[in-house]
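Hi, here's the filled form for the chain we discussed.

Project: internal
Contact: R.S.
Residues: 223
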Amino acid sequence: MRAHRNHRHPQIYQVFDLEQIRFSDTDHLYILGDVIDRGTGGVDILEQIMEAPNMTMLLGNHEQMCLSTLGPNNEVGARNLWRQNGGMTTYQELLYHSTPKKRDRILRFLSGLPDSLDLTVGKQNFHLVHGFPGYDHDTRIWGWVEPDSVSPYEDTACIVGHTPTVFLTGRMEENSSVWHGNGIIDIDCGCGHLNAPHRRLACLCLDDMAEFYVGGTGLEDIT
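And the returned structure, exactly as it came back:
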């Protein structure tokens, strides 16, 4: 099924299939972090984002683990934490298969990423963040949403990733879908969990809140 939509408006997508959402030069794509790890191709996607004038990426905890391991302010134990969270493919790609110039360029890009972003679309205010809409950096990239979580910002819808929506719905045998809570919208539909049959990529159009999906079981891809 294909949806006809206006391409002039901003969208949010965590990990994306541009053909599926008919992305054009007049769209703007906001990516909530965690582009790398748990599979191949993350570095290539980073380079695509870096070259695109109409893509804005937020810092996710996986990008933070990369910086903490390979960046100038590396931390003790960071590599082990990154490895435990699926980062070895990215680690090897950057350290052994990339030129120093390419690696430094990517690390500089990651170090400049914001950990949150505020937008207004029409009359609706949005706060974009990878983890949880909190008041410190660690919460914004590592924080988890709970079923009873509430937006801390008045008249603002917080759009988050990081927490797979199945943890909020408990619907383990259904295709994962965008979760709408009390002022918080979670778009992490488990795409990073490679062995989960119902994992999907999710995209949310901020003008009309249309949801787009890639993956899962069955033919449903748009709601």
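Let me know if anything looks off before we file it.
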